[in-house]
Amino acid sequence: MAEVYTLVRGLEEFSAAREQFNFLVSRLQSEAMARMEHGEVEATIAHAGSELLRRLLQGHLDLRAKSEVRRVEVAGADGVGRRHCRGGRRGLMSLFGEVEVKRLGYGARGEPGLCRAQPAPG
Fold it and tell me: What does the alpha-carbon distance between residue 14 and residue 8 come to, in Å, rounded to a whole number?
């Protein structure tokens, strides 16, 4: 009988978030945590949980970037077509900490560059 493989979308993009979740669960199961006061446990969860949320957001942004479709031409509100395409990245400060946004940018000689809005993967 042949094995069936299911490709799970977003598996690699969310590996850092899974790693952080497993770290937090392991920490919560430790003997050291069992001896802590509730407030200390809450502080640990708040700190490690915020990092988990940051990594989840980064995974989502990476999935969006991976799903972005390169276009032949993009026209801005000025009506000028931009055919030159290149990838770019920038830092973004989120509620959970800094993440990196990767996008395709389009340009034309003497014109400002554009990044087209993409629908969320879904």
Answer: 11
